[in-house]
Amino acid sequence: MFTALWTTAGAELDANQVKARYLVNFMKYVTWPEEGKAPTNAFTIVVQDSANLKNALDEVVRGKNFQGLPIRTVHTMTAHEFGNARMIFTRETNREKVSALLSSLPKRALTIGEGPSFLAHGGMIEFNIFEGKVRFNVNLPALRQAGFSVDPKLLVAAQEVRK
Amino acid sequence: MPATESDPDLEALGQIQVESIYSASRYEQKVTKAPASASIVTRDEIQKFGYRNLADVLRSIRGFNVSYDRNYAYIGLRGFQRPGDYTTRVLVMVDGHRMNDNLFDSGMLGLESFVDVDMIERVEVVRGPGSVMYGSNAFFGVVNIVTRTGAQLNGAEVSAEAGSFDSAKGRFSYGTKLKNDVEFAVSGTYFTSEGNDKIYYPEFNGYALNSDEETARFLYGRISYHGLSLEGNYYWRDKNIPTASFGTIFNDGREQTHDVRSFAELKYETPAEADLGVTASVSYDDYYYNGLYPYDYGLGFATINRDKLLGQWISPKLDLRKTYWDRVTLMVGGDARLNVTQHRLNYDEDPYFIYNHSTKERNNFGGFAQVDVAALENLDVIGGVSYDYFEDVGESVTPRGGVMWQAAKNSTLKFLYGQAFRAPNNYELEGPQLAGGHLKPETVHTYEIVADQYFLKNYRASVSLYHMDVDDMITQIPANVPNYNFALVNGLEAKGIGAETEFEARSSHGILARASYAVQRATQGGLELSNSPRHMVKTGLVLPVWPEKIFSGMEVQYTSAARTLQGGKARDFVILNWNLFARDLLPGLEASAGVYNLLDEHYGYPGAADHAQQVIAQDGRSFRVKVTYHF
After folding, report:
1. pLDDT reading at B293 higher than 80
2. What is the value of pTM for the model shown?
3. From A2, B228, B267, B601, which residue has the greatest number of CB atoms within 10 Å?
């Protein structure tokens, strides 16, 4: 009973390893829209401008499948190589660049960013560091507009949910 | 939204402390990979435990012993705190910028030190030798104060506090990150305290009245754009001294020190993920001190002795870091301290007499290389060496090595060896020396084993064993030299052995429990050093009173008896502090109320040679209330 009170704190993961594990959890708790799904041979996750996160993600998804497809991770420095990505993480925080990036994305991609205004620009999920811990906020209208459905468990775990 | 259970995986991820540490290797790395025994105190802990200043923060950390002589605070570490050592054997940094000055090499001034504690995001502490990375003064440890950024402030903050001894503090801060990625933070603080207005000193058989007053101002600013930043800090402090130190007139009310310490640093840093990591900076530092000491020479009036110092220096610094084959990280770097002014003047006003006047500037420079090899998936090996040169002193070559072994999924073992040095400071070089004498750097050799164990995913235990050999420590010996009755020589050899253990547990409900025990023995010729308590026990407990909103933070710290300089004893003591902290009761509002030394323990720290008091008595029970509004 006492042990159940305590959770995984203090386990020695760095911020990128924690974010990588979050990304995998996000995959579990959102349902991608069926409509307009392009035929593809891999579930592609693009990480923009964070080689360390991409490496951390590789540790977690190596050899794994999702939706019957092998998971493929891609790292890019520019905002133009998103192809048919299903999930996109960007480290960009500049307002104009984020807006431009979000408008150029493939449809039906789950967008994750960081910084205090990613959601304000239309992003779906943003990471922030709160009291030395990685937390996340969810933009529910943006997710719904793109046709995603969201498991309530994700919203419970979020620090803030925009409705 | 329908009610639902939370997911343990997601919740657990949100509870993981991801803090990395900069101070061990001059770049951000995981604490378990850092080649040192390290601790971090976060802003969250500062708020919940109600720490009023840096001294409070450091006192909570295992192995640290911070004393206060009612003028300056002194950082002791692992049993070493030489009386009269103005924190010259611990390197103190603000955002990686060296704060030890170019005259005394002092790393601490008041209890506050250089930055308002409200502007601290976290304090990193690295125990053991740090000279390979940081040069002189990183002898027993390194303390790095990391300030809050503009994005972390994210708006304006006004704060007001009041406490015992007519203490009051006010602060205004503003910070933000603009759309164009320019980030800035500014902050100003004013602190005033009447101090303890009636302190009884049996040595003088009387009270020191109204002579403990303190006033301080802090200004801080930082602006950055991507990797480029400009940071400035200004600290101004006046303190009256009630102890009649240095044989001044007791209860005169005028004995006072005035310190001003400031710097500006321009820095460029590549992103952490850059292929070639570059950190380049140039900074300007300034330290001004003016001490007023009233003496009775039997002339029928008091003679004022003035002690004035001015230090100004420029420090260029360059670090390069590159990782090869994903396994080998190579760091090389160099820095210099180009002293523009090292000016010291000590004189009596009336009758006018100059005791000491020195203006000679001496520069120093150094370089280092360190390689970190991920030899196996679970084994890191580091090795490093530095070369430093000090004008009129000579050179110092300093090695370090370590093995960090992740023995099991949740167990890390570190085997560390390192040397560190402290070059004689300006005060010592200009002080009395034997004819033909030549002061050289002090050195310390440290051997340490650190074990970190995480278990049940939420508990952490650490054990550290160390052995230190200190050679050529600078000390005073009786001698007949002009104007003095002593001389400074490299004469002292000392040893330190000890063990530290710490246990910490955190829950998702905001509970934090920690306890540490340090046993240490620092000796010289078999005799325990003065001001070296053998045992220190520190415990802290944060409990949420109202989830996410109100927290109770309680600390109990035990310090065993310590020998005084005269061979007497400063008795052991227990300090209990208790703080209530509330956030978001109203949007943007934080409030706290704390009681310090709640048991009203009568205790003190051993005095130095300049004190008539063997033990400097500390304050009894005191309180503080504080309100901060964020908008």
Report:
1. yes
2. 0.84
3. B267
